[in-house]
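2024-03-11 09:14:02 INFO receiving multi-entity request
2024-03-11 09:14:02 INFO entity count = two
2024-03-11 09:14:03 INFO echoing inputs for audit
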Amino acid sequence: MQPDVRGIVGVLGGMGPAATIDFMNKVLRATPAECDQQHVPMVVSSIPQVPDRTEAFRGEGASPLDAMLASGQRLADAGAQLIVMPCNTAHLWFDELQRAIGLPMLHLVEAAIGEAVAVAGAGAKLGLLATDATLASGLYVNRGAASVRWLLPTAAETLELVMPGIADVKAGRLEAGAERLLQAAQALQRRGAEVLVLGCTEIPLVLDAANAPLPVIDATGALARRAVAWSLAQRGSLHD
Amino acid sequence: MQPDVRGIVGVLGGMGPAATIDFMNKVLRATPAECDQQHVPMVVSSIPQVPDRTEAFRGEGASPLDAMLASGQRLADAGAQLIVMPCNTAHLWFDELQRAIGLPMLHLVEAAIGEAVAVAGAGAKLGLLATDATLASGLYVNRGAASVRWLLPTAAETLELVMPGIADVKAGRLEAGAERLLQAAQALQRRGAEVLVLGCTEIPLVLDAANAPLPVIDATGALARRAVAWSLAQRGSLHD
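2024-03-11 09:21:47 INFO inference complete, emitting structure
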């Protein structure tokens, strides 16, 4: 049944649920496969009842950590051999999760920055679209190589365009979300951004190479490509 | 955290992986939600390394039952409270699975026939597009109400249009798959079908209300709507 064994990717998802589906789609598209059996095996915990990550970071809501740990434990119980989280802001709790779950994890922000540097070249100005919490925590800017230069949305752009745009996507109002996020992207472009890093997994659902004013780095796609490479490199049995 | 508790839907998926993603999307669209936390919690086992269902039914390949049981057990271990399978042909093993896993399950074919009868009315002629195994096993025709009249693809249409069209979709060749499946649909229409039942979860990925020559009943969508209704009707705790 499996001459062609792959590692089982565990997806700690539901943050939000559409971003989880987008990640699964990008895994599918990044996998060379002619039939079902050649695709990457995944177990997915899409439990959207995780407290809002941005509210928790701002000190305005409950911590999502317990719910994320419970979701990660579901994946471990289901036989996941690797954990990925298609949610940027959730990576504020990455280290605690990794310690508690004890499975290898791939880091979404590292994957995105790796592709950004490869595409944009050293010294390029990277415009970052992300949640208030991702921006304010330094999740991206503290991880970049020395040669990376960031441009961020202003506070007003974050409050009036980026956060409402992301909320639009989560509520299924895709056109309204696209319009707001596009305006935020154009503001970064006017200030000199050469490449756009989509640092929230809801954003590539409405902004992509076809409608963005700049080349885009899709963090979800970058994580999907790393997860596929990991899975195809495994040699253990699926059913051990 | 959860005033608004929902039941956890377990998706026994990967048959194929794109159909699993399509099902998850249809759950999302069928759920009234303004934010992440109002969406339906799901755990998903998308393990595509399940032996081909049609080959097994024809006696040309290994049984998928052991792999499906292992996948169902992953879902039980992860805390699923209900099992659904977005794969029609896999329902040939539905009864064995339900006995072994011991969790409630929703039946895809029942959901599809229920919507077909509601949409088409008593006595309407239903054209069925499905795999060789789904057709030959009577999975649909043996379950229908007495008032349902079926029209099936001919053997040549099954071998030359339907099965290659489904294989195209599984391999990501969506345009070629759409063309073949559309031809099979037109043949059913010429023979008097008034409604088209898409009885293989790969088919609605390329054939829908926008391009089909007849009204379509999407089995995947029907199952998704039943799963959402089940989840929203639950009152137990998510974390018991």
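2024-03-11 09:21:48 INFO post-check: Residues 174-190 of chain B form the longest helix (17 residues).
2024-03-11 09:21:48 INFO post-check: Residues 9-107+222-239 of chain B form a domain with the Rossmann fold fold (CATH 3.40.50.1860).
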